[in-house]
Amino acid sequence: MSEQTTERRRKVLRALGILAAAGVVGVVALWIAIHQYPPLATFLVDGVRAVVGPKPIAVAEDIAYGIQDRINRWRYKDAPPTTYWEVAPGPSASGALPAPSSSGSGVWAAGFAPAPFPPPYPGVATPGDGTWIPVATPQDPGAPPVMFKALVHPDPKRSFAVVAVVAIDLTRVDMHSAPGFGEPKSSAMTRAQRPGLIPEEHYLGLLAAFNGGFQAQHGQWGMMVGGVTLLPPRPIGCTVARYKDGSMRVAVWKRIADTEPEMAYYRQTPPCLIEDGKINPAAQLEKNTGWGATVDGDTIIRRSGFGLDESGKIGFYVMGDALSAGTLAKALHVAGAKDAAQLDVNFAYPRFFFFDGNQTTPPRITQPLAPLPNWKPDEYVTRPEFRDFFYLTRKPPAP
Fold first, then answer.
1. Are residues 260 and 301 in the same domain?
2. At 62, phi and psi to the nearest 5?
């Protein structure tokens, strides 16, 4: 072999080594950005994706989340279950309600108390799993709660896979949908028509806000709000729909397409996780690619979802860490959802915030449902959101 050939080979190997090192640094940087600076992560990922295409980003995400999962399975092998909050089980936390109270605007109806549920896998559960904790209504703290929260650990192989569930009394709470100022990407609305903010007329009753669905480029899942179709519905899309009479449905589009004229809004997601009380068999396989997996389908990430109970009067929002589509579905199912959809995924995007109910100044966020770094108290109100979202307002008390 000539000296020239040997030198050329050294240069090639050196270049490959530099590229490999850069790739490792890039994966680490992406992981840090995702977990510490979600807005920066969104900017970096979308910017790089626009230049190099989706496949390299998918590979980087696979590597980063795969490494994280392997580390966590080793790190938490003998550790107690991860939890977002501590709660002791017992009647006082599992659905007991304060007496109805009178206020200047009327009397709240009593009786909303979601049923406690047994942990699906006691070996990875905390003592408080399945125990509902009342969430005070900020506008009237003495009134019967319109929301409860609970924890569940839905993965027998991962004690660090934890899900927070919020049960919502839809007879006393309105669930609204709003596009972000950039997503889902569509020419059907101008920037002025989609400010990415909660309207001022909803400040007084504002309770909470949470994430919507995927970006348009990830499936082109449909969305309509205010009579404007941003993206047309897909027949296989699981659809969160609110009707003009205030009722709600979660169902695959082809089952409810004929009711579209009666809808106030709809937002689609990948195929339903739960239909008619049964978990989608495909979602129970970790190696699936239908619910936001990246390359090999084995992505364990933060995920979120929304479901309805059999009556359609209780909504369940869920979000949690170290989840597959199947374990997300399991959490929704045990909590009481009869029909359910996955919403957005990845660490930066699933987010649920409680508001303070301030009635004299723009309301502000008091706390997130689950840990999330670098959030701002004025998000959704004076700080515009790039991606679509849902928000909850208290209905006026019955006279």
1. yes
2. -55, -50
Lookup result for tokens 């809004």: 265
Residue 95 placed within a domain: no
Residue with tokens 């979308």: 46
Tell me: do 68 and 185 sit in the same domain: no
**pLDDT of 334 above 70:** yes
Report the Cα 260 to chain-centroid distance in Å. Answer: 25
Helix axes 54-75, 3-36, angle to 10 degrees: 70
- Report phi then psi at 28, rounded to 5: -60, -45
Q: What local confidence, expressed as pLDDT, does residue 95 receive? A: 39
The mean pLDDT value for 4-31 works out to 59
Instruction: Give the dihedral of Cα atoms 336, 345, 210, 221; nearest 10 deg.
Output: -90
Residue span of the structural domain in which 371 resides: 102-394
Q: How many residues does the chain have?
A: 399
User: Could you tell me which residues come within 8 angstroms of residue 224 by beta carbon, excluding any fewer than 6 positions away?
Assistant: 230, 233, 260, 263, 265, 266
Between 296 and 105, where is the model more confident?
296
